[in-house]
Amino acid sequence: MSASQNPRSPSPRAWIAVILGAVVVAAGFTGAWLLRPDAEDPPAAVPTPTVVTPSATPTPEATPPPAPAGFAANTASYDLAALPQVDVFAVVPQLPVDSDPASAPTGEVVSATGAGAPVFADPAGDPVAVLPAEYVYGGTTVPVVERQEHWVRVLLTGRQATPSTGNPGQLSGWLRTQDVAFAAVDARVEVSLSARTIDIVRPGGAERIATDFGSGVEGTPTPTGRSFIMTTRVEPSFGYTRGYPLVYLSVQSPTLDGFGGADVAITAFHYHDARSGAISNGCIRLDPAAIEKLAELPMGTPVLIVP
Q: Are 300 and 181 in contact (CB under 8 A)?
């Protein structure tokens, strides 16, 4: 089956999506991601954990806090079916790359109400895409990086361009507050590639969950800047993960257009026996305790990776 097939087709199809250092296959059914490592699987004699750790959901926010007026309200109706969908496969040249990748988001996430929310590159213009309310590969709960009375600027999945044609960095866009539901997230993940540390930061302080990990090599580095948890999956048949959760991020490779014949190159946190130093195609390899901690976080949780 060709990797160029449309993943949104309503007919069951085989397709391949690539994770940095891993290949994701959904064959004939939705929701099953078969991840293949970029190194040999561990020996079969080592037992695989069978405990599945479901990820949490954001806490609904009953009364959003006041926000500055900012851009004028827009109450126009749009044909959402005529707009491209923002998802992990999307390439939307009109959408901007995140302009402030070192800053922390607001602590809020949003998801589309109804069928979806129109996405704007500029609140003064027309929408250029649609954020679906549901998508089998996640990415529909997104962190707010700027809050106004009528608008929120958010991080999004997909890319503006592939590395060979432009800037593949973390996408952002504007949503109307009338089209989304707000929720609160009390945590963010901070990764230091140079210090080899990972912290989960909450208002009460930081919890260090890793003091070493595997990350990208020079030619396929782990992308830096802010992103968010797109989705979390558990697939015990992935031998190299030992049945531990895989936590996928919204950001893709800064150097790879695709991987293994597919046209996406996504970053993930996952377990691997080899998990120290520059060793991967960009994914971050962790021990069991760290990956289990990350898998408990809600979708849309911000992640900041610094050099």
A: no
The sign of the dihedral angle between the CA atoms of 286, 221, 165, 258 is negative
C-alpha 259: how far from chain center: 17
- The enclosing H or E element of 291 equals helix 288-295
Nearest 10 degrees: CA dihedral of 204, 209, 213, 216? -40
For residue 180, which of 150, 159, 155, 157 has the smallest C-alpha distance?
150
Q: Is the pLDDT of residue 166 over 90?
A: yes
Q: Chain centroid to CA 177: how far?
A: 22
Sketch out the chain's domains with CATH numbers: 14-55+187-306 (2.40.440.10), 59-184 (no CATH)
Tokens of 248: 């996928």
Q: Count CB neighbours of 51 within 10 A.
A: 10
pLDDT band at 23 (very low <50, low <70, confident <90, very high): very low
Q: What is the pLDDT of residue 55?
A: 55
Reading the block at residue 158, the tokens are: 């997909």
d(CA 268, CA 283): 5
Segments in 48-169 forming alpha helices (H): none
Pair of tokens at residue 199: 């912290």
Tell me which residue of 16, 12, 38 sits closest to 25, measured CA to CA.
Answer: 16
Q: Of residues 261 and 29, which shows the higher confidence score?
A: 261
19-28, 152-161, 183-192, range with the lowest pLDDT: 19-28
